[in-house]
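Summary of Year 1 activities. Much of the first year was spent building the evaluation harness for sequence design. The harness presents a backbone, in tokenized form, and records the residue chosen at every position. We chose the following record to illustrate the format because it has been used consistently in internal testing since the harness was completed.
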């Protein structure tokens, strides 16, 4: 998978050099490059913003650097899917993560200030698929933190990036439920015990217990997820809970 990130704070994306994503890049599984938008400015101050048309507080990212950035990074015969991170975007979900993990080339435009001149998004949408995406209903200083979250959620779904693929099976939001609570050694810690069923060696009982805990946890923390659950996926024992 090829990923390009365009930002005025490339150092914000340094965490992508670490851990599993860093290793996947070294192994050539991810062709990930971070670009400083100021590379496409020509004034002495490398300015990337301007006062909002129509007045108002703050500054808006001007279109010229973005246009020249697209000219250089995007050839005529291949187009990325462009993700613009913004509080006004489509909510980012595990389903969208899976959708993006199937794309051969993603490009992320990190907005700052009051956002990017709308003409950049309109211009791009006339040439490639553009999705404005949000990681939550709150306002950050810019899109870089959202890009880190999205890249992490997407790349861990790319075959080979996450060492033990099995850990993708029962995690939260995979089957529409939150995952069951996890425990490890010791069996008793400061008076708190590991639920005995998990030490029973009876995998059928363990699976059942985890399923019940996932349903109970989801009902407590995210009843909205239960409402969206396909009724066909609940067996008669689930319904007794
Ligand atoms: N929530 C956000 N605030 C600012 C920029 C981007 C954002 N987002 O969620 O992608």
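For this record, the design step produced the sequence shown next.
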């Amino acid at each position: 998978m090829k990923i390009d990130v365009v930002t005025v704070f490339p150092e914000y994306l340094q965490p992508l050099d670490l851990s599993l994503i860093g290793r996947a890049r070294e192994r050539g599984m991810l062709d990930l490059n971070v670009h400083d938008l100021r590379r496409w400015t020509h004034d002495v101050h490398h300015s990337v913003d301007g006062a909002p048309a129509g007045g108002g507080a703050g500054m808006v990212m001007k279109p010229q650097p973005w246009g020249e950035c697209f000219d250089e990074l995007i050839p005529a015969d291949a187009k990325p899917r462009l993700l613009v991170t913004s509080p006004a975007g489509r909510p980012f979900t595990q389903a969208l993560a899976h959708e993006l993990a199937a794309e051969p080339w993603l490009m992320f435009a990190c907005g700052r200030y009051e956002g990017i001149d709308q003409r950049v998004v309109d211009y791009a949408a006339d040439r490639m698929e553009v999705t404005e995406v949000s990681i939550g209903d709150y306002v950050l200083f810019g899109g870089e933190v959202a890009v880190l979250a999205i890249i992490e959620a997407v790349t861990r779904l790319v075959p080979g990036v996450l060492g033990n693929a099995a850990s993708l099976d029962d995690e939260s939001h995979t089957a529409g439920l939150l995952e069951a609570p996890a425990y490890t050694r010791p069996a008793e810690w400061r008076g708190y015990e590991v639920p005995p069923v998990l030490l029973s060696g009876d995998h059928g009982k363990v699976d059942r217990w985890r399923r019940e805990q996932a349903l109970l946890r989801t009902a407590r923390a995210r009843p909205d997820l239960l409402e969206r659950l396909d009724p066909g996926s609940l067996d008669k024992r689930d319904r007794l809970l």
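The mean pLDDT is 93. Quantitative recovery figures across the full test set are reported in Table 2.
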